[in-house]
Design goal:
- The chain is an alpha/beta fold.
- Among the domains are: about 250 residues, 3-Layer(aba) Sandwich (Rossmann fold), CATH 3.40.50.620; about 110 residues, Beta Barrel (Ribosomal Protein L25, Chain P).
- It contains twelve helices and 27 strands.
- β15 and β16 form a beta hairpin.
- About 40% of the residues are buried.
- Bound molecules: adenosine-5'-triphosphate and magnesium ion (MG) (2 copies).
- Its EC number is 6.1.1.18.
- It comes from Selenomonas bovis.
- Keywords: Aminoacyl-tRNA synthetase, ATP-binding, Cytoplasm, Ligase, Nucleotide-binding, Protein biosynthesis.
Length: about 550
């Protein structure tokens, strides 16, 4: 692993820090499902530990009881495992430390470094000042240690209502860093916690809980996204104040969060899509959640290789979603079997092919791995509507009246007649087959420009196929507008109720990948039953990502 964080780790080791080894953590808040941005953080944290022979913890950052739920705890674990990472026996919860954190808070008070403030949230905000103006000290700032201890204990005992008091660090109301202006470290919330129940009615804030949870767990490198750069001085201040040894205590290092074109990567926004019914759930194949990507047919290997490819930067940028698509296309190109499916069927009758004849033709599964299956061929076939044009432009090398085309793995056919209904819609093509044009046949080598896919009507399986487009319409650069709900793509899902697939897919299982020849990569959706096949298109075949 080569990146600036790895360099910093090597520098620390060289300077004699962290002699016990490197220890990272992935700290999700269980308030939603993980998304592709979290995948980057997971790959980075577990990857750094692995690269340095260290350890990586999974820590649920569950200090915000009203928004958190065990449903999310479960999904987060499932997603990390699916991505291929393991936390072993190192699964922790910030809520496990509530007693210790409380004790640390009392210690800060005793040192004169924290005070109970009666100002309201709005007042605190107003007193905080601006970037150009220093803040104003709260009238409660100089309470005595004993008064602060007493009030803090009464906060814990439930004597006050939500919002009535907070505990603040006592630092510097004139600091150019807004976080250092006496940031709030405990608040009152009479709320049920998914793990600690009703034991607590005060909860630590992120700025307080996070550095201390890191220190308690022996984390050495606390890797987080750039928004927290401004919080780093407080991270260090707090650990200093509580006497953690600079040679062993954790340090925070920030990296740029992943932003993708055409994609929202914010749990809050993703939750809105789910709760307001714009998608079918957190695992809707259009969602950039890990569960959505999984259902869409993304593979763990593709997501990991994408994270590797984009690297780790110190400045925010926007990554082209085509890069993510490129990664899954590469993986599936190597691993997915090729099969034939006709999405928009047009009937073809081979007039010179016997009515009850059936042949099984050899078809290779994947040119990279060999392997083959047999597909049935008979008198009535389906081809793709798009592969026939009655009045084609010059360079149309598929089927046209009087023209010839090769059927993949099979024969050359010639279009002799176009049959239409009363409204002039084409309902059927009547074609002849060149009986010697099969592989190994006398005329197999005849030069025919176009090759198309097909399925035999008698044995074809009916299938539902779901084609996806981006969930959100963006500007030309792929930036998601502020009003992302207003920019939802009304055509992000196209359902084909009756496509036809070759019979080899009869006993396929959810999660199996295929390349439908000429149509793209597909995966079997969990909605599939033995009576009703459902496929999702993962990506098309054409790569829009140029390296
Ligand atoms: P969101 O804004 O989507 O709610 P979050 O940062 O609040 O994300 P957490 O559950 O706190 O979500 O995130 C766990 C870890 O994943 C954090 O260390 C966070 O920095 C990291 N992370 C979250 N989003 C991204 C992203 N887009 N790119 C890289 N890392 C991310
Ligand atoms: Mg967070
Ligand atoms: Mg968040």
């Amino acid at each position: 692993m080569v990146n600036f964080i790895q360099n910093a780790i090597e520098e620390d080791l060289k300077n004699g820090k962290y002699t016990e080894g490197i220890h990272t953590r992935f700290p999700p808040e269980p308030n939603g499902y993980l998304h592709v941005g979290h995948a980057k953080s997971i790959c980075l944290n577990f990857g750094l530990a692995e690269a340095n022979g260290g350890l990586c913890n999974l820590r649920f950052d569950d200090t915000n009881p009203t928004k958190e739920d065990t449903e999310y705890v479960d999904s987060i674990q499932e997603d990390i495992k699916w991505l291929g990472f393991s936390w072993g026996d190192r699964k922790f919860y910030a809520s496990d430390y509530f007693d210790q954190l409380y004790a640390f808070a009392e210690k800060l008070i005793e040192k004169g470094l924290a005070y109970v403030d009666d100002l309201s949230a709005e007042e605190i905000k107003a007193y905080r000042g601006t970037l150009t103006e220093p803040g104003k000290e709260s009238p409660y700032r100089n309470r005595s240690v004993s008064e602060n201890l007493d009030l803090f204990r009464r906060m814990k005992a439930g004597e006050f209502a939500d919002g009535e008091k907070v505990l603040r660090a006592k630092i510097d109301m004139a600091s150019p860093n807004m976080v250092m202006r006496d940031t709030v470290i405990y608040r009152i919330a009479h709320a049920h916690h998914h793990r600690t129940g009703d034991k607590w009615c005060i909860y630590p804030m992120y700025d307080f809980a996070h550095p201390l949870s890191d220190a308690i767990e022996g984390i050495t490198h606390s890797v987080c996204t750039l928004e927290f750069e401004e919080h780093r001085p407080f991270y260090d201040w707090l650990l200093d104040a509580l006497d953690f040894d600079p040679m062993t205590r954790p340090r925070q290092i920030e990296f740029a969060r992943l932003n993708l074109t055409n994609t929202v990567t914010s749990k809050r926004k993703l939750r809105q899509l789910v709760e307001e019914g714009y998608v079918r759930g957190w695992d809707d194949p259009r969602m950039p959640t890990i569960s959505g990507l999984r259902r869409r047919g993304y593979t763990p290997a593709a997501i990991r290789s994408f994270c590797e490819e984009i690297g780790v930067a110190k400045a925010n940028s926007l990554v082209d979603v085509a890069m993510l698509e490129h990664a899954v296309r590469e993986d599936l190109n190597e691993h997915a079997d090729r099969v034939m499916a006709v999405l928009h069927p047009l009937k073809v009758v081979l007039t010179n092919y016997l009515e009850d004849k059936e042949e099984w033709l050899r078809a290779d599964n994947n040119p990279m791995h060999g392997g083959a299956r047999y597909v049935p061929f008979s008198r009535v076939l389906y081809i793709e509507q798009e592969d026939f044009m009655e009045e084609p432009p010059k360079k149309f090398f598929r089927l046209k009246p009087g023209g010839e085309v090769r059927l993949k793995h099979a024969y050359i056919i010639k279009c002799e007649e176009v049959v239409k209904d009363a409204d002039g819609n084409i309902t059927e093509l009547r074609c002849t087959v060149d009986p010697d044009s099969k592989t190994g046949g006398k005329t197999a080598g005849r030069k025919i420009k176009g090759t198309i896919h097909w399925v035999a009507a008698k044995t074809a399986l009916d299938a539902e196929v779901r084609l996806y487009d981006y969930l959100i319409e963006t500007d030309a650069d792929g930036n998601v507008p502020k009003d992302f709900i207003g920019a939802l793509n009304q055509h992000s899902l196209e359902t084909i109720e009756h496509a036809f697939v070759e019979p080899s897919l009869l006993h396929t299982a959810a999660g199996t990948h295929y390349q439908f020849l000429r149509e793209g990569y597909f995966v079997v959706d969990p909605d599939t039953t033995p009576e009703h096949l459902v496929f999702n298109r993962v990506v098309g075949l054409r790569d829009s990502w140029a390296k």
